[in-house]
Specification:
With 356 residues, this protein is mainly beta. It has one domain: Prolyl oligopeptidase, N-terminal domain (Methylamine Dehydrogenase, Chain H, 7 Propeller). Helix content is 3%, strand content 53%. It has two helices and 29 strands. Strands 6, 7, 8, 9 and 10 form a five-stranded antiparallel sheet that branches. The relative contact order is 0.14.
Length: 356
C-alpha cells in the first residue's frame, strides 16, 4: 500500500505532509455516498476487511450464519468473502466445530484466527478467485495484518518455547514472509513487556506495547520497525498512564486512537516528516481508525450512536461517511470504498459505500 509522490502542488500547499497519489475510483457499481448492504443474511456479519486482488476489490468478514456448522456448536464463526465488482460471494473457511475469526486481507492472501479452545493462524491465497490450500503459519495467535509480502500477528510462541507458559500473556510480534522460506520470524522478542495489535504496510510494522504506570499496566505506547532496514524498534507515540490503541498504517501514515485528552481521539504520525498529526479531537469518542492513501476513517459517537467519519490528510478536513440509525462500526477502507459493520437491522451486517 505504499504511495509515491505524484503531485508537486500538494507539497507546496501542505509541505508538512507527504505527497500522495489519489487512488482512481473503483468500478464497484456503488453510488457515491449511498450505503448498501454487502451481506445481510441471517446471523451476524462483522469485522470486515478490504483489499484489491487479481479479481478487483475483495471484502472478507467473519460470519455466524449456520450453514456448514455443527448443530449446537460453541464455535459459530466462519469466514466469507465477496468480489465487489462481480458481486460474487463465496465461503473462505467454514470449520464445522471451530471458529474462524478476525480476518485480514492483502491482495490475494487472506489470514485469520482459527480457534477451538486454542488458537492458530491460518492463511490461504486465492486462485482464480477461489480459496486455495489452507496453511497454518502461527500458533497462540491474535488478529493478523497483511500487506505486500508480510503477514504479522501477536503470539505467545516464544514464552511456550522456553517453558514459560506462566507468562504467556507477554506476547511478541511475529511475521511471515509470503515469498520467503516458509517459516515465521520474530519482529520482537521481549520477556518483559507485552507487544500486541500489530499492523503492517510494506515492510514497516507498528504495534502496541504495554507498560506499567501509576495504576498497574496503565500505559500503552506505539512502537515501529522497518523489517528490511531496522535491527530494532523505536517508540512512535505514547504518554505515561494513557493509551495509544488500534494502530493502522499505510506508509508513510500511521493512525491510532488516543485517550490523552480523557476520551478517545484519533491521532496520526507521518513517518517521512517525523511529525505527529491531530486528526480528530471531537466530542465523544473516536475509535477503530483505518487509513488508505490520504484518507483516514473511524467510528465516532459524537451523535450518541456510532457513525463513520473520515479525514482527508491533504485537505485537512473531516467529513461524515455514514450517519444512520443504530451503530456503524469497525470501518476499513481501500481507495474510495469504505466497508463497516452495521446493526440497523435485526442483527449485524456488512455495508459499503463509495466516498463522494
Amino acid at each position: 500500500m505504499n504511495r509515491n509522490c505524484a503531485s508537486f502542488l500538494c507539497g507546496i500547499l501542505l509541505p508538512g505532509l507527504a505527497c500522495l497519489a489519489a487512488d482512481p475510483p473503483a468500478n464497484t457499481g456503488l453510488a457515491p455516498g449511498k450505503s448498501i448492504p454487502l451481506c445481510a443474511v441471517a446471523g451476524d456479519q462483522q469485522a470486515a476487511a478490504i483489499s484489491s486482488g487479481d479479481s478487483g476489490l475483495l471484502v472478507v468478514w467473519q460470519d455466524s450464519r449456520p450453514d456448514g456448522k455443527q448443530p449446537g456448536t460453541d464455535y459459530p464463526w466462519s469466514l466469507y468473502g465477496q468480489h465487489l465488482q462481480q458481486g460474487r460471494e463465496f465461503p473462505i473457511h467454514v470449520p464445522p466445530d471451530a471458529d474462524a475469526i478476525m480476518p485480514a486481507v492483502g491482495g490475494n492472501t487472506i489470514a485469520w484466527m482459527h480457534n477451538r479452545g486454542w488458537s492458530a493462524l491460518l492463511m490461504t491465497t486465492l486462485k482464480d478467485g477461489q480459496p486455495g490450500e489452507l496453511k497454518e503459519i502461527g500458533s497462540t495467535s491474535s488478529k493478523p495484518s497483511i500487506d505486500g509480502n508480510f503477514v504479522v500477528w501477536a503470539s505467545a510462541k516464544n514464552r511456550h518455547d522456553v517453558g514459560r507458559g506462566d507468562i504467556s500473556w507477554i506476547t511478541d510480534i511475529r511475521g511471515f514472509e509470503l515469498n520467503g522460506p516458509g517459516m515465521g520470524f520474530d519482529v520482537t522478542n521481549s520477556d518483559r513487556l507485552p507487544q500486541f495489535a500489530p499492523a503492517v504496510s510494506g515492510s514497516t510494522v507498528v504495534w502496541q506495547e504495554l507498560h506499567a504506570g501509576a495504576s498497574g499496566w496503565s500505559s500503552t505506547f506505539l512502537r515501529c520497525r522497518n523489517i528490511d532496514r531496522d535491527a530494532g524498534s523505536h517508540r512512535l507515540a505514547g504518554i505515561r498512564d494513557r493509551q495509544c490503541e488500534n494502530p493502522a498504517i499505510d506508509d508513510p501514515f500511521v493512525v491510532w486512537q488516543d485517550n490523552r485528552n480523557g476520551d478517545w481521539d484519533i491521532y496520526g504520525f507521518d513517518l517521512r516528516s517525523g511529525k505527529e498529526l491531530e486528526i480528530c479531537k471531537g466530542p465523544g469518542d473516536q475509535t477503530n481508525p483505518a487509513v488508505h492513501g490520504s484518507t483516514v476513517v473511524w467510528q465516532d459517537n459524537r451523535g450518541g450512536d456510532w457513525d463513520i467519519y473520515r479525514y482527508n490528510l491533504i485537505a485537512g478536513k473531516t467529513f461524515p461517511v455514514v450517519i444512520a440509525a443504530h451503530n456503524q462500526t469497525e470501518p476499513d477502507i481501500y481507495g474510495d470504498v469504505v466497508v463497516w459493520t452495521d446493526d440497523r437491522g435485526a442483527d449485524k451486517d456488512i455495508y459499503a459505500t463509495t466516498l463522494k
